[in-house]
Amino acid sequence: MAEPLFDILRSHLSDDNDGKAIHLKDPVVNRYVSRLANLPIESLDSTELQSLSQASHSALLSLQSLCSRSSKPLIASADHFSSLQTSIPSFTTSARELPSIITSLDAATVSFSEKYSRSSENAVLDRRKRALLMARNVEKVSDILDLPTLLSSTIVPSSAQGSSTATLYNSALDLHSHIKRLHLLYPESVLLNTVYAQAEEVMQEMTSNLVQNLRSQNLKLAPAMRTIGWLRRIAPELDDSSGAARSGSGEGVLGILFLVCRLANLNSMLEALEPLRELADQETQRRKDSPSHLTNGNAWSGGQQTEKYLKRYIEIFREQSFAIISMFKSIFPPASSAVDEDLGAQFRLLGLKSAPPIKTKIAHDPLQPLPSALSTFPLHLTELLNETLTQYLPNVRDKSSRESLLTQVLYCAGSLGRLGGDFSLILAQLEVAGKEGEDAETNNEWIGVVKKHRLMADRLESLASGVENQSRAVREPLRTSTQV
Length: 484
Known about the structure:
Elements: H1 2-10, H2 27-38, H3 41-46, H4 48-69, H5 71-115, H6 123-136, H7 138-145, H8 147-153, H9 163-185, H10 190-214, H11 221-234, H12 242-247, H13 252-271, H14 274-289, H15 304-331, H16 343-349, H17 373-392, H18 399-417, H19 424-434, H20 440-443, H21 445-483
């Protein structure tokens, strides 16, 4: 029924928009023709046209709403569709070039694997490993780089004193020991070599400060011992003196350094007497210019300024020389001269047998043993005093003033005599040389002063012994009564 009806309607139908003929095989056409065949004839004249208009209007509204909703996707789809004409040929060309690109990529991959292989030595990998190791240990490296700065902060000026100074110096020595230990552990490290060189420069500054401390005035025994101890830690080679050990002194180079520094301090204190020395020089010049006053009746007048200078000079000399030598003996005690006992004899006392001791030959050095620095230092001090007295003592013409000065010199010689440096006999030669041309009475001045000094010493000794005997006599009856 549908096919005859389609044949009747075909003559009234035109082709679709694409120019294609309408066939009954089209499902839409077949479905619509089958519907028409089942409708009554009255419906075809009355309601079918209205139904088709409504369907057309509904389709138009649907298309309009679809276009409004999907305008952008439709435009984008149209653009992409238009670009397919160029994209597909380009994709085809790239697909053809892909095999050659894969070959080049494979060659580059093989070259990279050979270049950065861990099985063989590679400079690039080693450099990267060092960079990674540096990145992981950047804090430790930073701490090592800060060591010289930290060491510099612990170095205090030589003028600073106090307990905090000792703490800072001890901290500086600990830091230097740590840097030195790191340098010994890793001698090939450029970083540690640089840090060690900077630390050595700082320690040189610290050594200069310590030496300057030894030259300071009013140096006490405790600070001097601490300073020598720090110098021994900074420069142990200065304390290692085989010649000093063989000579029995044991002070090494540090002992010589100590004496030189204290001698420099003594010279600076004596140079502070420059105003008094200038006045004494003026009196010396007057004495040399007008020697006729020595023969007049007032032979013991003049020399007051020289007397002041010599009194102050001898006082400073006595205090400082005694302090220097006493401190030296406390800081650098003499080496023991006792010979060690034979171990074989000790073994025999225990009933054991021992082999005879091996005798080692010691090379003979014609320049050894060197004398101790302390043995020659008092001679130098005596020469300083001798030169000063020889130059300025003739200016003092008053007899009582001269005797006072000579007595002061005797006390100075006695104080050094307690330390083994008595120079009173040398001063006897000084008096003979300093009083040429005078009469026999004035030449015996030194003898009279020595006699007075010895007489006073004997009186003090007798008084001391009398007091001791009296106290002993008082204690003896008390002891007897206690025993009874």
